[in-house]
Design goal:
By secondary structure, the protein is of the alpha/beta class.
Length: 863
Amino acid sequence: MLEAPSTPLMRQYQSIKQQVPQALLFFRLGDFYELFFEDAVLAARELEITLTARNKEKGQPIPMCGVPYHSSEGYIARLIQKGYRVAICEQMEAPGPGKKLVNREITRIVTPGTATSNNLLTGHQHNFLGALHQNALAFLDLSTGTFRATLLPPSVGKEELAAQIESLNIRELLLAEKQPALPALHTVLESWVFDFDYAARLLREHFRIQSFDGLFPHSQSALAGACGALLHYLRETQKASLAHLELPVFFERNDAMVLDAVTIRNLELLEPIFSSDLGGTRQSTLISVLDESSTSMGARLLRQWLLRPLLDPAAIGARHNAVAELYTLTIPRTQLRDTLASLGDMERLLSKVTMATAGPRELHALARSLAQVPKLQQHLALTQATLLGGLHSQLDPEAELTHRILHTLSAEPPANLADGGVIQDGVHPELDQLRDIQRNSKQYLAQIEIRERDRTGIASLKVRFNNVFGYYIEISKANLHLVPADYDRKQTLVNAERFITPELKDLETKILEAEERILALERELFEALRQAAAARAPQIRSTAQAIATLDVLLALAEVAVRRRYTRPGFSSSADGAPGEYKIVNGRHPVVERLVEEEAARFVPNDLYLDHEKYLAIITGPNMGGKSTYLRQAALFSILAQTGSFVPAESATLPLVDRVFTRIGAADHVARGRSTFMVEMTETALILNTATARSLIILDEIGRGTSTYDGLALAWAVVEFIHQRIGAKTLFATHYHELTALEETLPGVRNLHVAVKESGEQIIFLRKVLPGAAERSFGIEVARLAALPAVVIERAKQILALHERSEDRIAHQSSPDGAHGPLQISLFEPVNGNLAERIRQLKLDELRPIEALQILADLQKELN
């Protein structure tokens, strides 16, 4: 809690702090940003800097800490990464004589969702600020101008929403008062900010539009409320132009293949499942294989494409056509990639320009990037693909602006305006004159001295300087009679007199003020350049988007060439239903690269599913390659509909509306959910949401509970998918009883991962073949894991005992297709009356020969 202010400075600080009670206030004092009171205590602890005190001598110490102005970005970044907000308070006027207290104002507020500093951003990732209003979710990246909005299902749960926010990389979420909080970092705004009337007015004013019909096809009140809240928050925190923001782009979640957070994680599209501590690295992700982009803009767009694969065959074909043409143009592809590699991050450079935070180097980098656009146009002019032709038309080199910037700024400008040397010579006459004076001041003074000696005849005349009197002419007492009338006496010494002339006074003024005037002129010229660039923000942004798209297409073509990928085709059946899923010698894109790095060979596999046999039950040992095979199939659909070629000899795929995965699980102890509960929740989502056009990947359903329960659930899940959904499905399991379904369900086929036995050893062949596996080989895999030999031997004994006494599952179907109850009998005797027969034996009356005969009969019956 702030103490009563004791000085004008502290009163000013307290007044400004009250404007941002939830932020740490960086209060500019000269060359430092200072923090006081509770802010100082917190910042000193988080930044590990020294906590001092102000006014200690008056007995009322005020906690205080500070960071240098020139290196403040690193400290701010550390605080933002910890989830804090930082308000930047600048001196709005220069200190000077007679000014006891300079005016100070908050110039911007930095939050996790509004960060634009390079210290806080990752080049290949967006940094989204989101807003949730009713069922509308809007999000934008202030650093690039990307602006999106969508509608969530009315029944979306809190956990699913949190997962969606995480997958979009929304760093900060804006919520209205009384709205349920989410696990994500959120900021609460007053409810009126989301009101349609207020939000609509903001959007109309900023984007200069009259109607929302062209933006939001429906639910305009909710969508405008979410988008308007974002704009309101940025205006309040950034206090700068937001001209680089694009119009909000609305998208339906079902306009593209839907990939939920579980699927994105299970397939390791962007991040490894395991943390680095557990052996996970970015090399195990699909994005690491595909990201051959040359620019940060392309890397970000590739992530967007990968999270929203297309459903429109024409749009997919346009991407494939472009990739196919770039695939064949080896030399132009290389030249295009080389040109792109020389470009800066134009989207983020432009955002800094429009927000007036770009320095000389950043503006120069933007102009240098624009100067490379004609080279891109030259290469694209030779291409035939429609998409590439469209990119050629979209590119604009902004020749006039580019020429102006490059011929005004120095070839290697400094990072900060205050360092000087920003503007080239020959741009501004006054600036050239001041620089000439600054560089040659000693020479000018020497010339004046020689000229005045000749004019007065005083050989000992000297032109000198000191900090008190400035520049002056010093003449000895003996020569005072020779002093001209236009000399003005300035100071009398014992042996000499000091004079000033109008010429010397003028030169003194120019010399002393040259540096300050030079900086002021450079600031004016630079600001004019920056404003000129900001005025062209929409056109430059369009060019940057075209470059990003070209970069992604080039990256996909490069990957296809390097990794021997082929163009996939798409199929559909005569009735319009999803067609066949046919892969010849398919390879897992990530695993293939990893095994090649280890000088090993990836074993390719085929896969065939159609409308008659669309559900494959896959059996085989652990470590045999089942999970790789499953994930591989899912990745093929995602790659193909993203616009990429696929790692196969050939591939014909159906258009998939959604990919579902149920692979592995982990406890959510903090939420009171066990592994099995997580497994069942994810399975429920699949069964309640999937359509015939979905692709379902299930791995080991039912393993989190007892054998009886797990087998029964797995069996029922297969039946439900077969009878109710009809989606292409890969179902890996260790329940060999499920392979019997091939005989009773016409859409089911069995596959197995082949192994080769050599004595007690097994060799994983990594080949998927028709039919069911003979057994699971679990004990053999346990041996490979170095379990003690005594455990292995005992396991064999127990397995043999159970195999002798276990019955197969009996499954019967009634004529009308209704299934009878499952009859699971693992260890019951063959004869159900065996126990009763033994109880009825009168052992005291049995002769030894009769007992032996009964025992022999029982053994025969059991065998």
